[in-house]
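User: Just a sanity check before I run the rest of the batch. Below are the structure tokens for the first item. I only need the designed sequence back.
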């Protein structure tokens, strides 16, 4: 059996010949036309099976990724709680460091900028405030203008794309 591209090419060639002869099909052309559509139907069914198999595998992989992400999150949270308990125990007992066999725990100050907390923004002097302006393009409004027959400089209305739906 021919591949999908060859079937398509043969159909296109046959339809072109039929169109050149005024749209009338000979008996041989009609048989060939039916034969090509049967081949196309068989190929399409095979493609549908491949699509279903790959889609099932993708779903299984997605489910496994989600399961592993959830497991990772649980383990990370458990490790954070574990380290927090050790740090709290050391702080309660006034320890800056703790030797545990070949390992050592130390409580260190964080680096970087000193943190600040703003209690009331209205009390902050003007010299510490910065005005931020943001311009946003309203695509919905532009689309309404274009679909009602208007024009907008710098914008082109494109044709709607296509997709293949599989059921």
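Assistant: Here's the designed sequence for the first item:
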């Amino acid at each position: 059996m021919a591949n999908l591209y060859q079937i398509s090419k043969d159909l296109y060639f046959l339809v072109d010949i039929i169109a050149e002869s005024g749209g009338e099909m000979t008996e041989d052309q009609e048989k060939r036309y039916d034969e090509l559509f049967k081949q196309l139907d068989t190929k399409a069914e095979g493609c549908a099976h491949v699509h279903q198999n790959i889609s099932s595998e993708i779903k299984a992989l997605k489910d496994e990724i989600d399961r592993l992400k959830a497991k990772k999150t649980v383990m990370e949270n458990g490790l954070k709680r574990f380290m927090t308990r050790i740090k709290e125990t050391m702080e309660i007992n006034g320890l800056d460091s703790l030797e545990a066999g070949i390992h050592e725990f130390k409580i260190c100050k964080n680096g970087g900028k000193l943190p600040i907390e703003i209690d009331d923004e209205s009390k902050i002097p003007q010299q510490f405030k910065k005005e931020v302006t943001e311009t946003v393009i309203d695509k919905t409004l532009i689309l309404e203008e274009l679909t009602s027959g208007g024009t907008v400089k710098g914008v082109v209305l494109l044709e709607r794309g296509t997709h293949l739906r599989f059921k």
